[in-house]
């Protein structure tokens, strides 16, 4: 198992670096990287702000993006640079949207229109969902105080889909648990590939009341505010969360968004992290650990045994070795798992039967 990482800057490949990390998550939308190199290598490969970066792990492309930050440091021996950046979809997170009314209920076509109107026709859109559900209503208003990703993500929530970035830095429309991890995780004395693991249970982001505020355009094109409030009866607190999505939507879709926020807040309350030696699920398959995959996890000490979701992975390599940090949460933390159309009804019922709960020991 070579744990080979190669970085390319403007087409020039190099593998002399330290403190490499790459983070991919269905929670953060865009991926981000960081690595350190000496000044000599930086000069040879043409490190500049905005330069294109591609990263391969075990000869598999895992990231395409651009340099955003360069930190120049020095010690008694040499100068070295810490390079970091994100993929091109990061600008959608940072940039405010041009105000406009969109009369389109096909989500993929609407996102294409939004990207083109805001100058991002270089970003492609694909979907691994055979049939995307239609948006409720035929008119959606991008308000001037909204950011581009915020606008399209709020619409995505209404039809229970997730937006992530693919290896080329483009948008992929998907759902929770779109694939199975080829491998399982058994925390025991014989788990030589598990460097360490920890379970975190907290109520910092637990809310009993979740209110979603939206708007609706009348026939006279006037903006009318409306809201829904859901109660999470599993929450052991009276805290209230109020979210103004600043998007035109009907009441039923506001309820879907409220359900989405409830699932996310529950999911953040229970997280399991595991540092795995190397980057592969196992040597036989030669497959990398991937985000948005379903994992069988067993940890007798914490009374955990069932199916869970790898919501994020962090690949890292330094002079100390290579590892993949898995961020694991309960299935259903990003959508209603039993309504996942990627899975057949039989398979969905099977996984629902064996779905675990990270917090079961402490509830």
Task: Using brief descriptors, characterize the structure shown.
363 residues; alpha+beta; 13-stranded mixed beta sheet; 3-stranded mixed beta sheet; 21 strands; 42% strand; globular
Task: Give a verbal description of the structure.
- This protein is an alpha+beta fold and 363 residues long.
- It contains 6 helices and 21 strands.
- It has helices at residues 39-45, 90-94, 107-117, 148-158, 251-268, 345-353, and strands at residues 5-9, 12-14, 18-25, 32-38, 52-57, 60-74, 79-86, 100-102, 125-127, 140-142, 162-165, 171-174, 179-186, 194-201, 209-217, 223-231, 240-248, 270-277, 293-299, 304-318, 321-329.
- The strands form 4 sheets. Strands 1, 2, 3, 4, 5, 6, 7, 13, 14, 18, 19, 20 and 21 form a 13-stranded mixed β-sheet that branches. Strands 9-12-11 form a 3-stranded mixed β-sheet, with helices on one face.
- Helix 3 runs antiparallel to helix 4 (148-158).
- The longest helix is centred in the last third of the chain and has 18 residues, at 251-268.
- It is globular and about 65 Å long.
- The two termini are 40 Å apart.
């Amino acid at each position: 198992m070579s744990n080979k990482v190669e970085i390319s800057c403007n087409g020039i490949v190099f593998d002399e670096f330290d403190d490499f990390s790459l983070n991919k998550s269905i929670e953060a939308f865009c991926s981000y990287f960081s690595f350190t190199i000496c000044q000599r290598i930086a000069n040879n490969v043409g490190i500049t702000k905005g330069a294109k970066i591609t990263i391969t792990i075990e000869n598999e492309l895992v990231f395409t993006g651009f340099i955003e930050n360069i930190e120049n440091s020095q010690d008694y021996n040499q100068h070295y640079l810490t390079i970091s950046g994100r993929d091109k979809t990061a600008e959608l997170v940072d940039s405010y949207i041009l105000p406009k009314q969109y009369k389109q209920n096909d989500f993929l076509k609407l996102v294409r229109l939004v990207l083109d109107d805001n100058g991002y026709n270089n970003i492609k859109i694909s979907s691994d969902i055979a049939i995307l559900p239609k948006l409720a209503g035929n008119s959606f208003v991008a308000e001037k105080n909204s950011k581009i990703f915020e606008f399209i993500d709020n619409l995505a929530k209404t039809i229970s889909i997730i937006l992530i970035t693919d290896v080329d830095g483009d948008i992929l429309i998907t759902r929770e648990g779109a694939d199975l991890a080829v491998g399982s995780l058994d925390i025991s004395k014989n788990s030589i590939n598990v460097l360490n693991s920890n379970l975190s249970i907290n109520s910092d982001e637990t809310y009993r009341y979740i209110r979603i505020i939206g708007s609706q355009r009348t026939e006279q094109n006037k903006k009318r505010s409306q809201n829904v409030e859901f109660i999470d009866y599993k929450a052991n607190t009276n805290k209230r969360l109020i979210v103004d999505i600043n998007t035109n939507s009907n009441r039923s879709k506001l309820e879907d968004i409220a359900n989405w926020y409830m699932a996310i807040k529950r999911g953040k309350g229970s997280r399991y992290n595991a540092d795995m030696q190397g980057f592969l699920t196992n040597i036989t398959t030669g497959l990398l650990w991937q985000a948005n995959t379903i994992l069988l996890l067993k940890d007798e000490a914490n009374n955990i045994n069932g199916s869970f979701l790898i919501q994020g992975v962090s690949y890292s390599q330094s002079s100390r070795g290579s590892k993949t940090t898995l961020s694991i949460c309960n299935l259903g933390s990003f959508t209603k798992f039993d309504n996942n159309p990627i899975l057949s009804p039989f398979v969905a019922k099977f996984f629902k039967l064996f779905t675990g709960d990270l917090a079961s020991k402490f509830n």
